[in-house]
Amino acid sequence: NENLIEVVDLKKYFSVGKDRTLKAVDNVSFSIKKGETLGLVGESGCGKTTCGRTVLGIYQATAGHVYYNGMDVHAMNREEKLKFKKSAQMIFQDPYASLDPRMTIGDIIGEGMDVHIKLSHKERQGKIDNLLGKVGLTSEHSARFPHELSGGQRQRIGIARALAVEPEFIVCDEPISALDVSIQAQIVNLLIKLQRELGLTYLFISHDLSMVKHISDRVGVMYLGSIVELASNHDLYEKPLHPYTQALISAIPIPDPVIEDKRNRIKLEGEVPSPINTPEGCKFMKRCVHAKEICGKITPELKEIEKNHFVACHLF
Ligand code: SF4
Fold first, then answer.
1. What pLDDT is attached to residue 45?
2. Which of 230, 288, 309, 310 is most buried as measured by Cβ atoms within 10 A of its Cβ?
3. How far, in Å, from the CA of 282 to the mean position of ligand 1?
4. SS3 state at 208
5. Within the chain, which residues score under 70 in pLDDT?
6. What angle do CA 271, 276, 280 make, to 5 degrees?
7. pLDDT at position 140, please?
8. What angle do the packed helices 151-163 and 181-198 form, to 10 degrees?
9. How far is the centre of ligand 1, averaged over its atoms, from the C-alpha of 241 (Å)?
10. Measured between alpha carbons, how far apart are the two ends of the chain, in Å?
11. E strands of 125-225, at which residues?
12. At what angle do helices 105-116 and 78-87 cross, to 10 degrees?
């Protein structure tokens, strides 16, 4: 089995008030092969961040399973859990909030190493300097504090910190959305370079479809807690099948104004409905131009429509 991650019918519900339930992650299944990048896209509030955190065990799942190298993450003993915590890391959205302002860059990077890897003082500093080089900074940054660095440099520190414990799998949770547009591509290209060098496996979470296209091998589209389409990068962008994916892709800006004027944008009508107490049936129904009677009655399941192309829609 070459899958590093297998997620099966994962659910993460939160109670809201007395009798209401927010289904942040609702029956999500996917797998990620070793060395692969799975992109997870969707509008804000669709549950992609909660999904990433539940996969890492930061949130306890309400139901379902996450397997890491075939082992159930939520049923691991202490020793296995510690190993998993080392092997599976996270890069956060906000490099401003996720770095402790009172710690030096060297200590931020070294903190996780102190827990998981036993090193002498000299080896530790050597490793920190090496990691700084890997992410495009220098050993001089080690004695500095986060506020002395730019947003892009801070995100490089966030990446170095994740790499410090030699992980196999990294959840990149909107790693570029807090950064200047001019810096975003640099960070994504750095992640791609590191993946090649170190054989990393990524779950790349973002609302930016162009960036997801740039980095991912396969892409899952989330809507209100569920994956509505899952396919190879090529198939998803070249022949999207789900009406929601079609609308998202038609809204990606194209730099050429001539093409931009001519193409048919599918406008998404209405707001994203509330994820609290969602009714039976397709959650996209209120915004879907193809909705039929059955769509309001039966929730469509994610089914393989073409080889390795999965869609949850009654049109298929
Ligand atoms: Fe539209 Fe029905 Fe498909 Fe949902 S199941 S996306 S409402 S056609």
1. 83
2. 230
3. 6
4. coil
5. 1, 255-264, 269-272
6. 90
7. 94
8. 20
9. 11
10. 30
11. 169-173, 201-206, 218-223
12. 150
Q: Where are the alpha helices (DSSP H) in 45-180?
A: 48-55, 78-87, 105-116, 121-134, 151-163
ipTM exceeds 0.90: yes
* Ligand 1 cavity residues, CB under 6 Å: 243, 282, 284-285, 288, 290-292, 295, 300, 313-315
Q: Which atom of ligand 1 is nearest to the CA of 243?
A: 6
Question: Could you identify the atom of ligand 1 that is nearest to the CA of residue 290?
Answer: 8
Domain range summary for the chain, segments of one domain joined by + = 3-311
Write b or e for each residue in 148-169: b if 16 or more Cβ atoms lie within 10 A of its Cβ, otherwise e.
Answer: ebebbbbbbbbbbbbbbbebbb
Neighbours of 292 (CB within 10 A): 12
Instruction: Give pTM, 2 decimals.
Output: 0.92
Query: Are β-strands 309-311 and 88-91 bridged in parallel, bridged antiparallel, or unpaired?
Result: unpaired
Choice from 229, 305, 313, 316 to test ligand 1 binding pocket (greatest atom count within 8 A of CB): 313
Domain 3-311: homologous superfamily in CATH: P-loop containing nucleotide triphosphate hydrolases (3.40.50.300)
pLDDT for 74: 85
**If you search the block for the tokens 């402790």, which residue do you land on?**
100
Q: What is the pLDDT of residues 223-251, one digit of tens each?
A: 999 999 999 999 999 999 999 999 999 88
- Using the mean position of ligand 1's atoms as its centre, give its distance from the Cα of residue 88 in Å: 35
Cα(41) to ligand 1 centroid in Å equals 19
Task: Tell me the C-alpha distance between 125 and 217, whole Å.
Answer: 35
Nearest CA to ligand 1 atom 5: 313
For residue 95, the CA-to-ligand 1 centroid distance in Å is: 38
Task: Using the mean position of ligand 1's atoms as its centre, give its distance from the Cα of residue 231 in Å.
Answer: 18
Q: What is residue 163's three-state secondary structure? A: helix
Q: Which residues contact 172 (CB under 8 A, 6 or more apart)?
A: 90, 91, 191, 202, 203, 204, 205, 206
Specify the ligand 1 atom closest to the Cα of 289: 1
